[in-house]
Design a protein that fits this description.
By secondary structure, the chain is α+β, with helices and mostly antiparallel strands. The protein has five domains: 3-93, GIY-YIG endonuclease (3-Layer(aba) Sandwich), CATH 3.40.1440.10; 106-246, no CATH class; 257-371, 2-Layer Sandwich (Nucleotidyltransferase, domain 5), CATH 3.30.420; 387-565, UvrC, RNAse H endonuclease domain (Nucleotidyltransferase, domain 5), CATH 3.30.420; 570-622, 5' to 3' exonuclease, C-terminal subdomain (DNA polymerase, domain 1, Orthogonal Bundle), CATH 1.10.150.20. The chain has helices spanning 8-13, 40-46, 56-63, 76-90, 137-151, 172-175, 189-203, 208-223, 227-246, 297-311, 328-339, 351-381, 383-393, 444-468, 491-504, 538-566, 579-588, 592-597, 600-604, 611-622; strands at 20-25, 31-37, 67-72, 97-98, 106-109, 117-120, 129-131, 257-265, 268-277, 280-290, 318-320, 344-346, 400-409, 412-422, 425-426, 432-435, 484-487, 510-515, 521-526, 529-532.
């Protein structure tokens, strides 16, 4: 579409009287507003009427419209879904935008004959059972660890068959008493399922049976004078009571609900959400929105509900609000369709429920006052910085960025590093290090080729293996591929990466971080062009942080390998003395000096050291042969 050829008056007359979505563009072809309508003809024309009291925010937006386009849908519900998708895709300036883009941890009980209880960041239609969302990933991991200790459930990915041995030997968890080893056929499926159901009961908040069981077992262990077991049970009991203690806000009906409170000030708004699951408050979270001064609480509520619940994998049965959404029936139907069961909005006016909504709003107000500047700065450093990089490269939808670096000293101990940033933040759990296997000497290009080939080959193989087992490929260690690869160099490094990707049949953008003569980043090399980047901008600062982190991670690994190589005993230099005899010497003598001063007779009395080897050891330290 060319804005200069667009006749707004003529195009307004062509609008259909159908439901759909309209998209407003400025003269630079940027999307500045996305909206939906039951009747596109009436809704879009209303923007261009004069003297209708729209307010300065909308007036400014209308003055920038160079042209518009629209998409017809079959229903208003379809239009709502499409509107939300387009807003998240284009981030229009004049839409109220949810700034925070968080994913929440869940506890997943897998749908298998011998289920596992695992950490998950997404809820999928895979017949597994999910609990959450929770606001603390650390608390989720602690809870999973506790449950596996209590019920001795498996954590491995081994194939398991009822009553059959499927692997040669069980894992370490079985040897330390934390797994029943179903991979050895040690536990029937029915008994294992009973343990899983008890774990599910625990996750549903029924802690009393577990507490009673642990107290009884601890008392029995003490009476039997098994104090080590009693101490272990005591620690487990303490952990269970800690988890139970956190669940203080309760409701007798045991329903799942979200309590939503909003505070609005000028062009900023904060939404506070209390998560109540099974009648217990499991946590809270706040969200920062960018809006207009003219926006009403009801409008902000509408925008938040549509954007937040389009992205969160779990939708509760009830959502408590202070203001009723303007399209309450439509949004309820949409959420009900997403959840698969009825969802209701509740607008309490009096009583405890109204107090909870007021409490959420009060918390939102405090956050807006105290954290507004911090939140905005953090957003600028992360999501805002990623957006700047998107603008420089002309790429949309950047989230995961992987950077690679090589470290060596004159070709000694070549190593590679891979660091991962998601939404502008380091994701250290996905960092990887590589000890170069095929390159001898200081050849950075060959080393980088090996690192990239291993990284993506491993990812493709792991993804194929998970798919063959019907498991989720999003949570493999290498299966998530980046939206862009960042190379610590210019044209040469980028060329190596593109060759590797081409050989593997992958299509991933590759960008080089080009340095000046002082080894400082001066620009980005992408698509055969060196692109300048504002050195004062947050995008440049993020690139620098990524580059420094890749270099730091590679150097740290290289130093650790050098340190290991230097931790060598003088005994390693004695010809003909292997590891077992070195160990025997160190067990028999207190120090190297004692070995040096020992006679041949003393050395030969060491278990496993015959006289001939004792003479070699003596000669090594004294520089002469024994007669």
């Amino acid at each position: 579409m060319i804005a200069s050829d667009f006749d707004i008056k003529e195009e307004l007359n062509k609008l259909p009287k159908s439901p759909g979505v309209y998209i407003m563009h400025d003269k630079n072809d940027d999307v500045i507003y996305v909206g939906k309508a039951v009747n596109l003809y009436s809704r879009v024309r209303s923007y261009f009427r004069e003297n209708v009291g729209r307010g300065p925010w909308i007036d400014r937006m209308i003055s920038l419209i160079a042209y518009f386009e629209y998409i017809v849908t079959d229903s208003e519900l379809e239009a709502l879904v499409l509107e939300n998708n387009l807003i998240k895709e284009h981030h229009p300036k004049y839409n109220t935008m949810l700034v925070d883009d968080k994913t929440y941890p869940y506890i997943k009980v897998t749908n298998e004959d011998y289920p596992k209880i695992v950490f998950s960041r997404a809820v999928k239609k895979d017949r597994s059972r999910y609990f959450g969302p929770y606001t603390s990933a650390a608390a989720v991991k602690d809870t999973i660890e506790l449950i596996n200790k209590l019920y001795k459930l498996r954590t491995c990915n081994n194939r398991v068959s009822d009553g059959k041995k499927t692997v040669d030997r069980p894992c370490l968890n079985h040897h330390i008493g934390q797994c029943m080893a179903p991979c050895q056929g040690n536990i029937p499926k029915e008994e294992y399922q009973k343990r899983v159901e008890k774990a599910v009961d625990f996750l549903n908040g029924n802690y009393s049976p577990v507490i009673t069981m642990l107290e009884n077992d601890m008392a029995q262990a003490s009476e039997s004078l098994d104090f080590e077991k009693a101490a272990s049970l005591r620690d487990l009991l303490h952990n269970v009571k800690q988890i139970a203690q956190k669940q203080k806000i309760e409701n007798s009906d045991g329903e799942d609900r979200d309590i939503v409170g909003i505070c609005h000030m000028a062009t900023d708004a904060v939404v506070q959400v209390f998560f109540i699951r099974g009648g217990r408050m499991i946590g809270r979270e706040h969200f920062f929105l960018k809006t207009s001064e003219e926006s009403t609480p009801g409008e902000i509520t509408d925008c938040f509900i549509k954007q937040y619940y389009a992205g969160t994998p779990y939708i509760p049965k009830e959502i408590y609000l202070k203001e009723e959404p303007s399209e309450i029936e439509l949004i309820e139907n949409w959420l009900s369709d997403r959840k698969g069961s009825r969802v209701h909005f509740v607008i309490p006016k009096i009583g405890q429920k109204a107090k909870l909504v007021a409490l959420a709003a009060s918390n939102a107000s405090l956050i807006l006052e105290k954290d507004k500047e911090r939140i905005k700065r953090e957003h600028g450093r992360t999501i805002g910085a990623v957006k700047e990089i998107e603008d420089v490269l002309g790429i949309n939808g950047l989230s995961r960025m992987e950077a690679f670096d090589i470290s060596n000293i004159s070709g000694f101990e070549n190593v590679g590093s891979m660091v991962v940033f998601e939404d502008g933040r380091p994701k250290r759990s996905d960092y990887r290090k590589f000890k170069i296997k095929t390159v001898a000497g200081p050849d950075d290009y060959a080393c980088m080729r090996e690192v990239l080939t291993r990284r993506f080959t491993h990812g493709m193989e792991e993804k194929k293996e998970l798919e063959s087992r019907g498991e989720d490929t999003d949570f493999g260690s290498f299966t998530r591929f980046p939206d862009v690869i960042l190379m610590d160099g210019g044209k040469g490094q980028v060329g190596i990466a593109l060759e590797v990707l081409d050989e593997l049949g992958l299509n991933i953008p590759v960008c080089g971080m080009v340095k000046d003569d002082n080894h400082r980043t001066r620009g980005l090399y992408y698509d055969n062009v060196e692109l300048p980047i504002d050195r004062r901008g947050e995008g440049f600062k993020l690139i620098t942080r990524i580059q420094d982190e890749a270099h730091r991670f590679a150097i740290t690994y290289h130093r650790s390998l050098r340190a290991k190589d230097q931790v060598r005993s003088v005994l390693d230099e004695i010809p003909g003395i292997g590891p077992s005899r070195r160990k025997a010497l160190m067990m028999a003598f207190d120090s190297i000096d004692d070995i040096r001063q020992a006679s041949v007779e003393s050395l030969s009395r060491v278990n496993g050291i015959p006289v001939k080897e004792a003479e070699i050891i003596y000669s090594f330290f004294h520089g002469d042969m024994v007669e």
